[in-house]
Amino acid sequence: MSEPVPTVSVSDLPPDAPMLDVRELDEWTAGHAPSARHLPMSELAGRVSEVPGDDPLYVVCRSGGRSARVVAYLNQQGFPAVNVAGGMQDWAAVGRDVITDDGSAPRIA
Question: Is 61 a catalytic residue?
Answer without folding.
Answer: yes
